[in-house]
Amino acid sequence: MKIIKLIQSEFIKNYTLKKIIGIILIVSLFSIGLVEFMNLFYFQKGQEIELIDNQMEIRNQELAQKENRTLEEDYELYLNRIKKEAYQYLTEKKITTLTDWHTSIVFDLRADLQENYLYKLIRDKIEDSFISGICSNENYKPTEYGDGYAATFVGTLSTDCAYYYDGTLEEKIEYLEKEIEAYEKLLKEDKFYLYLQYLIDTEQIFDDDIEIAQLIIDKKIENMWDARALNYIKYSFYQTESILSEEKFRKMQEFYHFPSYQDYVRFTKYNNEEAKKSKAILRYSIENNIENDLPSNNTHNYGIWSMMNSSYNVVTSKKMVNEVFHLTIIVLILVCITSSGIVSGEHSKGTIKNMITTPVKRYKILLSKFIYLILHTYIIWFIGLVALSIYSGIRFGFSDLFTPKLIDSGGKVIEVNYYLYLLKDMFFAGIPVIAFLSILFFLSTVTLNTAVTTSVMTILAIIPSILYYACAHLNLNFLVYTPLLYFDCGYLFDKQEFYIDILKKVDMNLGLGILVSLITIVILYTITNVVYIKRDIKN
Fold first, then answer.
1. Residue 407's Cα: distance from chain center in Å?
2. Are 403 and 433 contained in the same domain?
């Protein structure tokens, strides 16, 4: 009971209204900034389509008015026309990104129209002597015909003329016209699920992904940016891979960037397991139309959707609230500012004399201060969780925050309460944070200098990102056996690039971080306790 009263005393002494308002304001502003910063990545939809410039319009007018145009000039005029039509279509549809399925079809259609145009020229207009001259010239260089469209025109003919001399020209034209007709039909129908059906029919989807694509087709999802459609696209990112033999690995070791074959095997097994879990969650999410909060980063990037995997992430409030693990940076800085003098401040103010004259045992005084420090940290972190939830809900909607968390448990996807699961993760991720507090507590007791403690601990609070980079690129693998990397567990939960790079070299995980942190806490608290008691005796 005495310890509880001492803890209450610490809260009464340190929690003023002004301080509480300041903490809420700072954490809320940082939370808003974090959401907006992360939203830059979630909303990224790939490289934007280049607009048609005025120079092309002027050139088209010149060519259209010119009499007796050359074949090259006819080709240039045709190319400009289909390019203009393509961009007019995309503009009308308000499509501005290369990662939209309409863009893919439009560009493929343009390529087919261009190729078909050339084959028909070969068939109908171009003399055999002209074609045979290009095809027979082993030293042919497009630059001999000048720059720009003329070189492109002749260069394309030189690579395609084999079709003509192999007697397959008409077959090629027929094939292209069928493909052009199919593309034009897809654009006219303007339904994403029909596009998926076309990709299945033309064998452009991995066999493993056909079944999940069929779910989108069966549900007749018309918009590619529907959450379920995006989850299907993300599903295709996660592919398992066979483990190479050691001999084959040695030949490709530079490509894989693994220190050893054992590291490669360990990482590939981990990756395959993660891919299976992610695919199961995504499938369940699509089947039951429940938003998932899988991290935006992954280690695979395959298939027809490989242009920019980050482009296809579903933006949800859950994903933004999950950034609470990155809030530890501001939480730790605030703890440094508000609590670095938790022991040294008692000495500088002279209040330590009043404390040691009470009948309360000295170790209880120290323990109460440490427990207060832990509770103070979790309170600030919880305020951050509330701020993230409110702002993310306002920004992206509150509905998915009340949907369950989907997790893979023994090969089966189950639904659990989202916030209870998140609080559980915060508790375990908080153990490395307590290791940080034990360092602060130790410095405050040993140095009795609040300024030194604040300075050192603020530096420790902001260096995790630097240390992640150092560990990933400078081979400082020993850092994973210190609590320093785990102060910001957001890297682990988000499976960010630095973390993945580290995993290729050493097995870094939250369990290891908790173990290292617990050892750090026990050692430092024990030393702190001894120092505190001895110093009290001297006083």
1. 19
2. yes
Same domain, 461 and 502: yes
Domain count, the chain: 3
* Pair 209, 217: CB distance under 8 Å: no
Q: Is position 199 within any domain?
A: no
What H or E segment, with its residue span, contains residue 306? none
Closest listed residue to residue 514, CA positions, set 530, 495, 492 = 492
Range of the structural domain that residue 303 is part of:
206-314
- Helix residue ranges per DSSP H, 190-301: 192-201, 207-218, 227-235, 246-251, 253-256, 261-288
Cβ(393)–Cβ(266) below 8 Å: no
Q: What pLDDT digit, counting tens, does each position of 163-203 carry?
A: 555 556 788 888 889 999 999 999 999 999 999 999 999 98
CA torsion 521-523-524-529 (nearest 10°) is 110
Q: Report which of 314, 292, 293, 312 is spatially closest to residue 304, judged by C-alpha positions.
A: 312
Distance CA 60, CA 77 (A): 6
Q: Is 333 helix (H, G, I), strand (E, B) or coil?
A: helix
Phi-psi region of 203 (alpha: psi -120 to 50; beta: other; left: phi over 0): left
Q: Is residue 480 within 8 Å of residue 502, measured between CB atoms?
A: yes
Dist. CA 187–CA 177, nearest whole Å: 15
Whether residue 62 lies inside any domain: the answer is yes
Q: What DSSP letter does each residue of 406-435 carry, written as one string?
A: EEEETTEEEEE-HHHHHHHHHHHHHHHHHH
Residues in Cβ contact with 207 at an 8 Å cutoff, skipping those fewer than 6 apart: none
Residues 522 and 368: their CA atoms lie apart, in Å, by 16
Helices (H), 289-321: 317-321
| Same domain, yes or no: 309 and 345 | no
| Residue 152 backbone dihedrals phi, psi, to 5 degrees | -65, -40
Residues 398 and 417 grouped into a single domain: yes
Question: Is residue 465 within a helix (H) or strand (E), and if so which, with residue range?
Answer: helix 464-473
Q: pLDDT of 267-324, one tens digit each?
A: 999 989 988 999 999 999 999 988 888 876 544 444 454 444 445 566 789 989 999 9
Of 205, 135, 126, 121, nearest to 113 by C-alpha is 121
Quick check: is 198 in a domain? no
Task: Give the torsion through C-alpha atoms of 294, 300, 305, 307, to 10 deg.
Answer: 110
Cα-trace Rg, the chain: 32
